[in-house]
Target: chorismate mutase
Amino acid sequence: MKKTLQLESISKWLPTASKPIIISGPCSAETEDQMVTTAKQLAATGKVHALRAGIWKPRTRPGQYEGAGEEGLKWLVQAKKETGLPVTTEVANAAHVDACLKAGVDILWIGARTTVNPFSVQEIADALKGVDIPVMVKNPINPDLELWIGALERLNKAGLTKLAAIHRGFSSFEKGPFRNAPMWDMGIELKTRIPELDILCDPSHIAGNRELISFISQKALDLDMAGLMIEAHINPDAAWSDAKQQVTPANLAKIIDGLVVRTVSS
Ligand code: PEP
Ligand code: MN
Model:
């Protein structure tokens, strides 16, 4: 099969002793204390390989918490200093990229509402030309595999090789048990099209509630996905965004402990 992308495996840029790779942290960085305390509790579980937090939040409706902005980047970097864990946040434009590079963010991710827009993805790719930083690309909010692949290609053409995909489910008018329909076939088809691409799963945004996170995480591992990005917060019910789907660091540890990592025979 023709190689479509030049990629470096996630095991090279987020080396971990154990599979699956776990990225965790709050949906949003809210205050320095919330960020750093959550990070320390996550690090203390010994099960987390990188910290996440949203700094610029793409809210569906106005009037909700839209993130701490650049100030929040300092908290994220402080969390990194205190835990030794690499940190990742969402970027949606060139200004976000520049601020993250200046602050020392280790890994970037592109959110579902940005992957849909080739202008925005190209702007991010252009801002990252000549920069060697890992970028994770969430699926677009609509089930369009070509848009997902197109975003990865735009970054790859700009010279970025440390790329991974994040399967976070798809928006649907029909309401089922999930906030976003998993449509697992999309991730499977992406892996078929680009076998060398590592795919992580974001069970938090698929589920929309904390009760379904274990089930979705196990499904992702059974599909041989490389890891999980799970939202965690010191006080989930009081979170300023995505309160229903966040778990405490202690519960994150329980979820991870309950997962069965099966060896897929080829
Ligand atoms: C998030 O990770 O908090 C987020 C906004 O994700 P998504 O782009 O998947 O909606
Ligand atoms: Mn969220």
Q: What stands out?
A: The chain has one domain: 10-257. The domain at 10-257 is CATH 3.20.20.70 (TIM Barrel).
